[in-house]
Amino acid sequence: MSNLSPTARVILGMLRLGAKTGYEIKSTVEQTTRFFWGASYGQIYPELRRLEAAGLVKGAAGAKIGRKRVAYSLTRAGEQALHEWLTSSRPLEFEYRDEGLLKLFFGGLLTPEEVLANLRAARREAEVDLAFFRSELEPRAQASAEEDGRYPYLALQYGIAFLEFMARWYRNQERALAAELAGSKRSSTERASGPSQAGRGAR
Description:
Number of strands: 2
Structural class: mainly alpha
Largest sheet: 2 strands, antiparallel
Order of helices and strands: HHHEEHHHH
Number of helices: 7
């Protein structure tokens, strides 16, 4: 089954890795894939019902966990569908959203000072995320690498490298625009003070 929805792909994978309920799937996503492949409760629960209707997952009959949470597991067809998707050679989907970059795209609608403020905010956000990846996610990923395999850790390393690039890129643009604005202000000040200086010299 190669036409799995984006949410179905992450659900089947998380169930295969040991998650049982929609809550556990969401919790695992929040700690792992949400930075490159997210899923909300509003997507997970309807998709679980669709997957169950399609025979790819099954809810344990009468089994409830915690707050009436149904425990799910993959069926044989679900395992096959997951494997088919993981090994498929179709073009990979790519969707990336960066609000800071979108604001920069529309920077012509702002003053240079407003653009600079947005660049600073984007750089700080990237630095905060990078610090979180390094201090919170990386130690856990390293500790579980032997048990869960190295591939989640490799995906995390990609995320760290990407955030390093983002922080560096925004920092460079921020410095360049700040220097440009400082130069413009100096030129304006010199032009404004030039005639008066000349007048004083003549007297």
